[in-house]
Write a structure and sequence with these properties.
223 residues, elongated, 2 domains
Length: 223
């Protein structure tokens, strides 16, 4: 199981390698594209849940690619990657539908949160469709991973990591035909605590709650 599929689009090999290695190590499936045409091919093929897109590239530049991505897919989040001197341009891309932007050299803590938040937002927009097509335990694990990664460090340590552990335990038990109910109950308690202390935005709280309820409904009826 991966946390999501990231498409890295950059004409500079060192940047592609750094981003690919980092996010692969973090548990994502990562594909790299060297130019805009390759990126659009990957998008048409449905091979990306999120795109990290360089602003400055030869041929189709990042702004042109962003416009075409938005025409092909209105949901896939795009995070623009920019040099410091192009930050003003990167800000303008938010009006064109970019989810966020990050500057080189990378602040990986911020980039990690931005990717997690982008994937969580995309999951929220398509939750109804995934509820029909995706195994509820896979959906639960993915959702909790993404939301926990977007938490502030103190909240992630106190409740986020415990929610992830409980979600994985529930998914493993369900796959093995063992009881998962107690792990779901633990997740609900942790979710309530996180909500009480303001550790989760309302959208993320609703996202986890929806995935948790779908997992509950899939439990076998007893008695």
């Amino acid at each position: 199981m991966t946390l999501g599929r990231i498409l890295v689009v950059d004409d500079e090999a060192p940047v592609r390698e750094v981003l690919t290695e980092y996010f692969a190590t973090e548990g994502y499936a990562v594909e790299a594209a060297t130019n805009g045409a390759e990126a659009l091919t990957a998008i048409r093929g449905g091979r990306a849940d999120l795109v990290l897109l360089d602003v400055r590239m030869p041929g189709l530049d990042g702004v042109q690619v962003l416009r075409r991505i938005r025409e092909l897919d209105g949901n896939v989040p795009v995070i623009m990657v920019t040099a410091n001197e192009d930050v003003v341009l990167a800000k303008e891309t938010l009006k064109l539908g970019a989810f966020d932007y990050v500057a080189k050299p990378f602040d990986f803590e911020y980039l990690d949160r931005a990717v997690a938040a982008g994937l969580a937002r995309a999951g929220e927009k398509t939750a109804a469709g995934h509820a029909k097509d995706e195994d509820p335990w896979t959906r639960l694990a993915r959702t909790v991973f993404r939301v926990a990664r977007a938490m502030q460090p103190s909240a992630r340590t106190s409740t986020g990591e415990r929610m992830v552990t409980a979600a994985l335990a529930a998914a493993r038990n369900a796959a093995a035909g063992r009881g998962a109910g107690e792990h779901l109950a633990e997740m609900q308690l942790l979710l309530d605590v996180a909500d009480e202390f303001g550790d989760l935005p309302a959208a993320d709280r609703a996202l986890v709650g929806s995935a948790l309820e779908a997992a509950r409904r899939s439990l076998p009826v007893t008695g």
